[in-house]
Amino acid sequence: MIPFRHRSGLIVLLIALVITAIAADNVYNKFRNRSYSNRGYLSEADEIKLGAQVHDELRKQHRFVTDSAVTSYVNSLGQRLASNSKRANLRYQFFVVDDKSLNAFATLGGYVYVHTGLIQAAESEAQVASVLGHEIGHIVGRHGLENVKQSQKYGTLAAIAGVAGAVIGGKSGGNIGQLAGNLIFGGKLMKHSRDAEREADYLGLYDLQRTGYNTGGMVEMFKLLQRVGQQNPNLLGNILASHPPAGERAENTIVEIREKLRGSDSRGVSNTNEFQRIKARLR
Ligand SMILES: [Zn+2]
């Protein structure tokens, strides 16, 4: 028999262990209260320059939607989300890529892209907003910059070795363009670790909520990606396909809403007439 005063100590210890175990269940815990900056990476000015070069390379490879009703809708949605992000002082630019696969990606310095296929497959504005929020999360988390840094560190692409020097030193545009091209087509820039993806989901969820959207839109989007992945996997862009399984992402979001954002999936904007009009325009 354990003396009472020891037993009560034991009970306190057990309760503490149980609380720790429950808290450890939430994969987002490690991202809470992180602060973000360019320290240890390219400066923001150089990041923006490299982002612009990457954009020029992307323009050569993809057809961009020019219908101003569509582009201004996506831009306005993106700007509202960006202004509520943890990197609101950056200038963001949003582009719509004419491609039927379900995809979206962010590069460097505020450049964000979404495919027409994703907008067409989405059932609500909140779902599209959740994807843009995730991509803005990559910009906030400096995930593209981390990939540039890793490429330099391990010399996986010889041409990348001097990327910072090339940008800062203002070498010829063609040279930097080649570096940007290597970043894209070497597949290094947008391929993030699974933890970086989870962090972008976490940041995107809170961005969605702060912008006044129903957070259930993010859960629905992951379920939609899961369905498409099962029924028509070739429609999933390879960038989204490399993320953690959509089922896991839905579950992480559900847990976070239940523990920290209770009720946020039953209020806020889900859909708008404008979204339906834009979707119809893309048909
Ligand atoms: Zn991502």
Explain how this protein is built.
This protein is mainly alpha-helical and 283 residues long. The protein is built from 13 helices and three strands; from the N terminus they run αααβββαααααααααα. About 5% of the residues have low confidence. The site of zinc ion (ZN) has 6 residues, from helix 5 and helix 9.
Keywords, separated by commas or semicolons:
single chain, about 280 residues, mainly alpha, 13 helices, about 5% strand, binds zinc ion
What are the bound molecules?
zinc ion
Shape: globular
Q: How many domains in all?
A: 1
> How many β-strand stretches?
3
Mean pLDDT: 87
DSSP helix count?
A: 13
Oligomer type: single chain
The whole-angstrom Rg is 21 Å
The largest beta-sheet arranges its strands as 1-3-2
Topology:
Elements: H1 4-24, H2 44-61, H3 68-83, E1 93-97, E2 104-106, E3 111-115, H4 116-121, H5 125-140, H6 143-154, H7 163-168, H8 173-185, H9 194-210, H10 216-231, H11 238-241, H12 246-260, H13 273-282
Parallel strand pairs: 1-3
Antiparallel strand pairs: 2-3
Helix pairs in contact: 2-8, 3-5, 5-9, 5-10, 10-12
Bound molecules: zinc ion (ZN).
